[in-house]
Design brief:
Elements (H helix, E strand, L loop, with lengths): L2 E5 L2 E3 L5 E8 L8 E6 L5 E7 L6 E3 L7 E6 L4 E6 L8 E7 L4 E2 L3 E5 L2
Parallel strand pairs: 2-11
Antiparallel strand pairs: 1-3, 3-8, 4-5, 4-9, 5-6, 7-8, 9-10, 9-11
Length: about 110
Amino acid sequence: QVQLVESGGGLVQPGGSLRLSCAASGFNISNYAMDWVRQAPGKGLEWVSHITGGVDSATYADSAKGRFTISRDNAKNRLYLQMTGLKSEDTAVYYCARVFDNARGQGTQVTVSS
C-alpha cells in the first residue's frame, strides 16, 4: 500500500528556513518521479518542484528557484524540500506527490509570518 507522510512544517519568520520531509512506504522512491506541490489558503494546488526517477534531475517553479532545493535519500526512502529565504507568500500546505498516480500525503502546514 502506497503511503506518503509529510512532516517538517511550522511557523517561521520571513527570511527563515525549513526542511520538509516526505516518508514513503509501499514503493521504492528512487524509481519514481516525485513532486512537491502546495496549496495556499483559498487557492488551488501549485506545483513547486519535481525530481525525476532514477537519475536525479530537479526542476522548480519560478517562485521556488534559487530558494528551494528538492532532494531524495533512497536509503531512507524519503523526499525532502529544503526551503530558504521564506516569504509570506510561501504560506501553504505542502504535499509530496508521486507523479505516476498523483498519490499524495496529508500535507504539512508552512506558515511564514512575523
